[in-house]
């Protein structure tokens, strides 16, 4: 099973911390499609804690996105102050990626190709700025 850790602020929503920002276009829809198409196990991986974390989880749940675990490898895992929050994930989707956060259509295609290190072909990448919305519309209808 593919395990993917997903950041919240500036990945799913714009950065308005401690408030919830605005939706990043196609983030929730793409994550739902990744869950459905690849039976991926999604983990919410964020620096949010307490009330702000609860709000982020509720925000996603209200949009139909539920995570396997939150800031842990398993739902029942308990963190201690001495235990680092290191996740065992196959992929990490985060705005702090080298080169920044790709568009969610590109993220989906990177996962669909089975090789996130080899993104879309040069031909598709050269067309990407012009076809971003039509590409996403093809994915989501």
Structure description:
- The structure is a single chain.
- The chain has 141 residues and is an alpha/beta fold.
- 38% of the residues lie in helices and 9% in strands.
- The chain has a four-stranded parallel β-sheet, with no helix packed on it.
- The longest helix has 19 residues.
- It is globular, with a radius of gyration of 15 Å.
- The chain starts with a strand and ends with a helix.
- The relative contact order is 0.18.
- About 4% of the residues have low confidence.
What fraction of the residues are assigned to beta strands by DSSP? 5-15%
The structural class is alpha/beta
Summed up, the helix count is 4
What coarse outline follows from CA principal-axis ratios? globular
- SSE run: EHEHEEHH
The value of Rg in angstroms is 15 Å
The largest sheet, given as strand count, sense and whether it forms a barrel, is:
4 strands, parallel
What's the multimeric state? single chain
Q: What is the structure about, briefly put?
A:
By secondary structure, this protein is α/β, with parallel strands linked by helices.
Keywords, please?
141 residues; alpha/beta; 4-stranded parallel β-sheet; 9% strand
Topology, please?
Layout: E1 3-6, H1 27-38, E2 41-44, H2 50-62, E3 69-70, E4 91-93, H3 104-112, H4 122-140
Parallel strand pairs: 1-2, 1-4, 2-3
Helix pairs in contact: 1-3
């Amino acid at each position: 099973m593919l395990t993917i850790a997903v950041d919240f602020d500036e990945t799913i929503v714009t950065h308005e911390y401690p408030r919830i920002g605005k939706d990043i276009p196609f983030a929730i829809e793409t994550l739902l499609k990744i869950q459905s198409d690849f039976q991926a196990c999604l983990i919410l991986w964020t620096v949010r804690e307490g009330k702000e974390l609860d709000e982020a989880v509720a925000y996603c749940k209200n949009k139909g996105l539920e995570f396997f675990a939150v800031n842990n490898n398993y739902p029942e895992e308990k963190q201690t102050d001495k235990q680092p929050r290191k996740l065992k994930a196959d992929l990490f989707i985060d705005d702090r990626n080298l080169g920044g956060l790709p568009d969610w259509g590109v993220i989906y295609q990177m996962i669909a190709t089975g090789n996130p290190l080899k993104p879309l072909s040069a031909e598709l990448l050269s067309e990407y700025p012009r076809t971003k919305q039509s590409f996403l519309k093809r994915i989501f209808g």
